[in-house]
Amino acid sequence: MRRLNRKKTLNLMKELDAFPKVPESYVETSASGGTVSLIAFTTIAFLTVMEFMVYRDTWMKYEYEVDKDFTSKLRINIDITVAMRCQYVGADVLDLAETMVASADGLIYEPVVFDLTPQQKELQRMLQLIQSRLQEEHSLQDVIFKSAFKSASTALPPREDNSLQSPDACRIHGHLYVNKVAGNFHITVGKAIPHPRGHAHLAALVSHESYNFSHRIDHLSFGELIPGIINPLDGTEKIASDHNQMFQYFITVVPTKLHTYKISAETHQFSVTERERVINHAAGSHGVSGIFMKYDISSLMVTVTEEHMPFWQFLVRLCGIIGGIFSTTGPTF
């Protein structure tokens, strides 16, 4: 009785078989079938390798939210060389809250030679080439995010030619902590002094003929300093055509949280527009000679996260590839 029930059960399961088998006596091999089989297995191997490469790759996911942190300080990282002697120039920050941050709070004035050595020129040329490619291909920014901390800083290496030329420029480098509000970082003639209505620069003692605001920006960034990240103004060089020349940079700073498989940091990205003009009061072009970087803080915060394909999704896609090819070429096997 039990054997009868078992036999009925097996017969029922056979009737439910959705994948009927062809008897081996009915199967015939052929040259064309072997060729298709070879092509099918080669295609499976190729697509499997390609899928594994996709599985190993990562991509950056961008999310946006309102920045609710208005109490913390904003760090500005600066490395700028101006073609004037250090005793003739002064740098400081004045924000909308009328708070003045003097350069003595974190900046170093270092006398240097403005002209670069051949090695430094080559590194600067490479940096400018990268900047031009970044403007054309924005997806390269994801590659830079992934390589953070792998690359060196964009600062130029020290001179190695032991030049006997006397310093004719001033390298201003270091960092400042400012309020998280719009402000103006500037380098102009004379040292800054406090003033009841803001501040002033002692420019009267500097000869007008010594004005030269040709400059090179080796590095300018906001937030935590992350080696390997290339910022929009890194490698910028401007040559003044007149003693009375004003260089202006209008910067929009975007708070950014960066989460990759190698680092997790809070930094800031920024975009910039540039303008330069000669100060000529007789022609109606008013202002002060110098370098002015006016920055504003965006109310949006960007979270950049590096993501990876889950292993289960890789297996599902792999099974789909193999199963699809077998289903398509099955009758010819």
Automatic annotation (TrEMBL):
- Give the membrane topology, semicolon-separated if more than one: Multi-pass membrane protein
Gene Ontology cellular-component annotations: COPII-coated ER to Golgi transport vesicle; endoplasmic reticulum membrane; endoplasmic reticulum-Golgi intermediate compartment membrane; Golgi membrane
Give residue ranges for domain Endoplasmic reticulum vesicle transporter C-terminal. Answer: 165-328
Query: What's the stated role of this polypeptide?
Result: Plays a role in transport between endoplasmic reticulum and Golgi.
State which gene encodes it. Answer: ERGIC2
Compartments (UniProt record):
Endoplasmic reticulum membrane; Endoplasmic reticulum-Golgi intermediate compartment membrane; Golgi apparatus membrane
Keywords per UniProt: Endoplasmic reticulum, ER-Golgi transport, Golgi apparatus, Membrane, Transmembrane, Transmembrane helix, Transport
Membrane-crossing segments per the record: 35-55
Q: What is the predominant subcellular site recorded for this chain?
A: endoplasmic reticulum
Tell me the InterPro entries matching this sequence: Erv, Erv_C, Erv_N
Q: Name one Pfam family in it.
A: COPIIcoated_ERV
The processes (GO biological process) annotated in the record are: endoplasmic reticulum to Golgi vesicle-mediated transport; retrograde vesicle-mediated transport, Golgi to endoplasmic reticulum
Q: What is this protein called?
A: Endoplasmic reticulum-Golgi intermediate compartment protein
